[in-house]
Amino acid sequence: MAAQMKICVCEEAEAGALHPKFIRDEEERPKVAYDQFSDDIPVISFAGIEESGEKRAEAWRRIVAASEDWGIFQLVDHAVDFTLLQRMSSLARDFFALPSQEKLRFDMSGGKKGGFIVSSHLQGEVVQDWREIVTYFSYPVAARDYSRWPDKPEGWRAATEEYSRQVMELGCKLLEILSEAMDLEKDALSKACVNMDQKIVVNFYPKCPQPDLTLGLKRHTDPGLITLLLQDQVGGLQATRDDGNTWITIRPIQGAFVVNLGDYAHYVSNGRFKNADHRAVVNSKCSRLSIATFQNPAPDAKVYPLKMGEGEESIMKESITFSEMYKRKMSNDLELARLKNLASQNNPLLN
Length: 351
Prior knowledge:
This protein is an alpha+beta fold. It contains eight helices and 15 strands. It has one domain: Jelly Rolls, CATH 2.60.120. The chain has helices at residues 2-15, 54-69, 82-96, 100-103, 156-181, 188-192, 263-268, 322-346; strands spanning 37-38, 43-45, 72-76, 115-118, 132-139, 197-205, 217-220, 226-231, 237-240, 248-250, 257-261, 277-280, 288-296, 302-303, 320-321. An eight-stranded mixed β-sheet has the order 2-3-11-8-13-6-5-4. Strands 1-10-9-12-7 form a five-stranded mixed β-sheet, with no helix packed on it. Strands 14-15 form a two-stranded antiparallel sheet. The chain starts with a helix and ends in a 5-residue tail after the last helix. The relative contact order is 0.17.
């Protein structure tokens, strides 16, 4: 399946027309270009965050405000080594430039945990995303399966180990700020995660012959706690906060992390923090690369508000595990896609 999909993507790019499996319904197609940048998303400096004084207070205030407003912000001066960021991106591009048979040695379709796949983790989707991905399951360290980590290009494994460590440290510092904003102990969110998972997803979006008909990654919210995204300078990450009525393209900033809050953050804060609603668009001029690091709770972590004010009601009907929340989310996505496809097939005006 993955081999066939990869051939189809390449053939579509060369043929100048999309296969129908990539074509989105009219209402899903992008109306804002990949390089039509907006500055609405806050850019926040992390310099001085571990010191006392005005710099820390200002960064703290802006991070909390952005988490409540958009659920997205860009973080600069974060202390993750810039040379390491460049190396990770360079090695990732080298991987995606490999022949198909090399990448497919790490094919993760069929339920394998980690490796390479085309389009999506979610098997059974009717419309495919225009992308290829590599996934590293990086934390807990003891659970790493290095047999699923690509061994080419040389040095990518070592770079990923160091990158995952530094990003984990940064993510935990951000969680301390969000915990304090909820008037909890600063390690409250980390403890709620039980034994925090970390997953790195490297996204490659090839240039596309008809980018106005498809998406690199469909509209979604991340299921977990917090995502730190490193993107190149091409552009294509878009966000909405009015249920998809309007979209903005986030301006790339070299060396910055785009920080997205996910569903878990939304639920444990009892709706205070937004779960960022976003997608990725593609273009016909050049490929795009991004590296998303997901900081997620352990599968058995409880999903329920950590604190509620007097008289405040929970936005959740029951406490469930993160594993169950994730399964429900994925099942719901597939069912909605199935119903939409069925409606399209039964309506001659849409065919």
